[in-house]
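ok so for the tutorial part 2 we go from a plain amino acid sequence to predicted structure tokens. step 1 is just haveing the sequence, like this:
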Amino acid sequence: MLLLIGLATALIYGLYRYYTMVSRYPRGPMPWPIIGNMFQQDFARQHLTSIKFAPSFDGVFTLYTPGPVVYLTDYVALREAFVERGDDFAGRPDNIVMEELLMYSPNSDFGMGKNLMEEQVLSSVREYLDALDKIENKEKVDLCWYIQLMVGNIINETLFGYRYKYDDCAQLINYVEDFQKWIGDLAKSPEFVVGFVAPVLLKIPFIGYHCLYKHRDNMRKICQYIVDNVQRCMDGYKSDDEPTCFVHAYKQRMPNNSFLDDDNLVSTCNDFFLAGHETTTTTLRWAVLHLAMNQETQENLRREVHAVVGRDRLPRMADKSKMIYTQATVLEVQRMANILGLNLAHRTTRDTVVKGHRIPKDTMVNGDIHYVMARDPHFVNPERLDLADRVVAFSLGKRACAALARVELFLGLTATVQNYHILPRDGEPIDFEPLPMNILQPKDQYIRLEKV
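step 2 — the prediction. this is what the tokens look like for a chain of 452 residues:
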């Protein structure tokens, strides 16, 4: 009897402590002890999580997986957190899953000026257009790998100083395919959440391997492409020469900065390639499909490009200020593509407040840019440029991504419609349902191209 009383007392005390902890965070759907809200989420389609819960709250709510994660699901909350209180949200989550699967590094251009960046993009765009011109059957075209190689060559040249030919690019294709398979496998493997729930279980070899370390090992194999390219660049480095790529510029600065080392160099290149390549190519692939379905928008865009730039040269970033409709189209493409099902997490560095909700120090925070762009009530007229700040595809604040991607999107998209009509194939409706993964990629499908 005393044992039962003791167990009941312990249970009641445990529940009291748990829900006292819950009361410290913004209100959300009621969590269960130990498991939190885990069984209320679709880990393969994280973008559906906020769609399910956000309408019941005012832009800020907490889910437990089983630890607390605060979701920010409207523009006001995002801006207050990441811009007005940016230092409060500048941390990264301290978790073994994050440490093993993702590598975060300093964000620096190491002297890569905007003019050099633009020239590299334009050079790759020219090669991309030449490759399109050589396609024999333009009635059935999958632009996926043409776009992949255009963007991949820009990043490859920026980091390593060389680019691939369109008929000799097996290494890059293998790297991209392996990474896409990895993120697809991760989305189909909810067991990796064990690392968030009970990290101590990862010390058990069988559990650790299947829940985390097989994914980590596969990522390391994929990243051998980066390691090999960095090593090749380092072998050709001469300290007296002007740096011709990021690796050489980084190497040149290493002696004067104790934070720069070989491991960090590989990690930085890996971050740059994985994040910069897949997000930009996925956005451009969605852009092609949306323009194929919206011929009036495509024609308006082409008309403005031809009026401002003409047909004898490629668009440049200096033309952008004169191309208002084009700016609006690029922004709307990013909003409609809305490719990040789950944003990179932040961690609060101190106790803070968003929209009147208290958020304790060391809390994981997800700025749900997918939900904001999909549900922001201000997006009634997408051609209004005064709403440009609300297109948060690159997030907000000190950790926002962007410069190179913006150049690639603008120049890649405008050059394509300047030179080609993008058309759907007869009898083959375009499928806008994304693949089930956290980078929301379109399914492989064909379009038609007609030379302008």
